[in-house]
Amino acid sequence: MSKLALLGGEPLSEKKMDWSDFWPPIKESTGDKLKELYLSRKWTAFDSLEGEFAQAFAKYHGAKYGIFMVNGTVTLQCALGACGIGPGDEVIVPALTWYATAMAAHYVGATPVFVDIDSETLCIDPEKIVQAITEKTKAIIPVHLYGSMADMDNIMAIAKQHGLRVIEDCAHMHGGVWDGKGIGSIGDVGSFSFQHSKTMASGEGGICITDDPELADRIFRMKHIGYGPGQLQGKALDGPEEGLLCYPFRATAFQALILNDQLKDLGSHLQRYQASIQFLEDRLHQTTKIRFQKAGRKADNQGYFGWLMIFDDPSYADIPIGTIQEAISAEGLPVLPTWGPVYDFILFNLSKESYRIDQAGSPVTESISKHSLFLLHAYLGLGQDSIEKIADIIEKIMNNCDALREYARLSAT
Ligand SMILES: *Cc1c(COP(=O)(O)O)cnc(C)c1O
């Protein structure tokens, strides 16, 4: 057994593994078009590019309308606002997600209610949604997290029974397909982010997709200071309905151009990720006791923000996750912890009166947060040599559990 790099041995990868030649993808032809756009001076709004991309993205996911915006937080905010959700209302969100999911509910004046996750998909648990519903509940925001999809069949059935809106947070799931339907097209609205770390990225950006013409109209007005779709600047034909809060949340033509080109490669991109994950999980299932986040129950095609490893087998569970992270990183593979329960996240600062944790608490979220690490999706696009190296590194660490325990014991004293 070779000595862990953490303990002074040779790291398996001399240089820190790096995807910066692969991600975000760049193409000469996109660069040429960007230059042309720059020289045209038509950098933003009202012209065809943003609308063209929004339509293409919506169509790709099987929805009728797409509304392109500055990020994937205001998309959630506008989706909630367009559904009429506001002060006095409760919005059910998973306890494990990026904190924007909960903040969006707060931004419209509603109360986010945190509900625990399923232990295999790590997405919101439908049974626990039912327990958390009160007469104030108006919406559910399921999040398709890391590399899995929330159980949309059960969530839609619950929503129907209780008269709730469903807004899918698809910030991790570009190109995902659930039971033949494009992700984001199943609930009332689907929201995606194009922030720099996501599977489609334009620095910043976000989109709402929907089949409902009224919601599409309201969301469009909310992002464009009240203008309706197709109305020229300075030539509004009608105003937004009274009380609908509207904002300047428009993104630029530069972002639309970059994303339009990325959309054409999304399918092949996801196939590459899927092949890497298949290889890693097949091999590590045989050689380690790590378990992996399960794909959505009816996933035909999975999207990815990251590849998630869970170290909660009894033979690993007593090793602090920080030690495993340190050991893997020392071999040259930077892995990250999950964000943990939103209400414990360092940037989440709402006062206790502004949110609610379901009375059942979130034991699964808390346990997963203590026992899992994820690898950002961009590593999955590296060549086969690198993917094999990733497997080698993880095997090396898990073959040295006794040394890890000893290291953790000494560091603690
Ligand atoms: C990134 C992310 C968002 C928000 O996206 P931004 O574009 O950064 O505002 C929302 N939800 C989840 C789950 C995310 O990961």
Key phrases:
globular, 413 residues, alpha/beta, 37% helix
Task: Explain how this protein is built.
The chain is an alpha/beta fold and 413 residues long. It has twelve helices and 15 strands. Helices cover 37% and strands 14% of the residues. An eight-stranded mixed β-sheet has the order 1-9-8-5-4-2-3-14, sandwiched between helices. Strands 10-12-15-13 form a four-stranded antiparallel β-sheet. Strands 7-6-11 form a three-stranded antiparallel β-sheet, with no helix packed on it. Strand 4, helix 6 and strand 5 form a beta-alpha-beta unit. Helix 1 packs antiparallel against helix 8 (253-287), helix 3 crosses helix 4 (100-107) and helix 3 (74-82) packs across helix 7 (213-223). The chain is globular and about 75 Å long. The mean pLDDT is 96. It binds pyridoxal-5'-phosphate (PLP).
What percentage of residues falls in helices of 4 or more residues? 25-40%
β-strand amount: 5-15%
Radius of gyration: 22 Å
Ions and ligands: pyridoxal-5'-phosphate
List SSEs in N-to-C order. HHEHEHEHEHEEEEEHHEEEHEEHEHH
Question: From the helix content, strand content and strand pairing, which structural class follows?
Answer: alpha/beta
Q: Distance N terminus to C terminus?
A: 27 Å
User: What is the mean pLDDT?
Assistant: 96
Number of E strands:
15
Strand order of the largest sheet: 1-9-8-5-4-2-3-14
Q: Tally the helices: what do you get?
A: 12
